[in-house]
Design brief:
By secondary structure, the protein is of the alpha+beta class. It has helices at 3-12, 16-26, 32-47, 52-66, 73-115, 120-129, 154-167, 190-203, 220-238, 252-256, 260-271, 281-293, 298-304, 309-323, 330-346; strands at 138-144, 173-177, 180-186, 208-211, 244-246. Residues 116-234 form the CdaR GGDEF-like domain.
Length: 353
């Protein structure tokens, strides 16, 4: 045993040899105070960062050294078992507490990071502990599915294992927030977020993934995160079918709604007359939306709507008569298509404008 091991042994095996000597003489078990003392020593050893395997080995070495030659083996071994078990219990208790504290600190950091609630300078300092350098630009990908997920769940563990297996040497952060999977990566590492999107899509059975644009500095993460969330919300309202959305590809939509009142006026003016149709504006609005999504191809639009081309043509003529705008006319088509996008964004006609 080295000098350092003897020092550690003396510190964390305090009183152990005396207990064995008394047990060998009386055959008694350890009392409550002795067990409590063993647990306390185990907690201290864990807090000081010593390995449990080495400490158990020291207990066994001390047992051999202090073993009374004429002692009853059963009594001594029972005492050893009690002592080591109590020591290990205290050690594990300290470890669990440390893990809980680390988890709490990590969750607090993630909340501050994604909501921008902390001092940015302090946030950057804390980020180093969790593998991020916020002086760089970062981008955030968010995966949403019908089921909420947390970090301890099987889906989260599966995605995290895949990320660490592929990019274990990268400075990335994987977590969950509000039931969604979240990945933060340096802004110049598109391969990380693309791989995350692929894994999250597979693990969530088709959940949609949105990727925000890279933004620099401590506030860049929350900016990118909000872009990803907005993209998911936009995809829901616009019925976008793509499994992976890039906020950079959707910038036209915030531009269109920047003047919300002007967009509402356009929707009321261009599409308001559709309310006069039997069944309300909804069916004809869906017809226009599908027609534009199909590239104004009547046959494809009819197929998507499960209509005949003749029935679709009748609906388009009905729209022309009600609105005065012809979907086949290039200028009218632009106005109608912009109004249809605005109706989706503003949830019209379900919501009054």
């Amino acid at each position: 045993m080295t000098a350092r091991e003897r020092e550690i042994s003396g510190e964390y095996l305090e009183g152990y040899a005396d207990i064995l000597a008394e047990v060998s003489a009386t055959g008694r078990r350890l009392n409550r105070d002795e067990l409590r003392a063993r647990r306390t020593l185990g907690e201290r050893a864990a807090e000081d960062g010593h390995g449990l395997r080495a400490l158990v080995g020291m207990h066994l070495a001390a047992t051999r050294k202090a073993w009374p030659g004429d002692a009853a083996a059963d009594s001594v071994l029972a005492a050893v078992e009690q002592a080591v078990d109590a020591f290990a219990e205290g050690y594990e208790r300290a470890q669990r507490l440390a893990v809980r504290q680390e988890e709490a600190a990590r969750r607090e950091f993630i909340d501050d990071l994604l909501y921008g609630r902390s001092d940015l300078g302090r946030l950057a300092e804390r980020a180093e502990r969790f593998g991020l350098r916020l002086s760089r630009a970062h981008a955030v990908a968010v995966a949403a599915a019908g089921t909420a997920h947390d970090e301890a769940g099987p889906v989260s563990r599966r995605v995290e294992r895949a990320l660490l297996g592929r990019f274990g040497d990268r400075r990335i952060l994987f977590t969950t927030k509000d039931g969604r999977l979240v990945c933060v990566a340096p802004g110049d590492q598109d391969d990380v977020l693309a791989f995350f999107a692929q894994q999250a899509y597979a693990a969530t059975d088709g959940g949609r993934v949105a990727i925000g644009r890279p933004h620099p500095g401590p506030g860049g993460v929350v900016h990118s995160y909000e872009e990803a969330l907005n993209a998911l919300d936009l995809a829901e309202r616009m019925n976008l079918g793509e499994p992976v959305l890039h906020a950079a590809d959707l910038l036209v939509f915030p531009v269109l709604t920047r003047d919300r009142q002007a967009m509402a006026d356009l929707v009321r003016s261009a599409l308001g007359p559709l309310r006069q149709a039997r069944g309300g504006a909804g069916p004809l609005l869906d017809t226009l939306s599908t027609y534009f999504d199909a590239g104004c191809n009547a046959a494809e639009a009819a197929r998507r709507l499960s209509l005949s081309v003749r029935a679709l043509t009748y609906r388009l003529e009905r729209i022309h008569r009600l609105t005065g705008s012809d979907p086949a006319d290039p200028l009218h088509r632009y106005t109608l298509q912009t109004a249809v996008i605005g109706a989706r964004l503003l949830d019209w006609p379900a919501r009054e404008l």
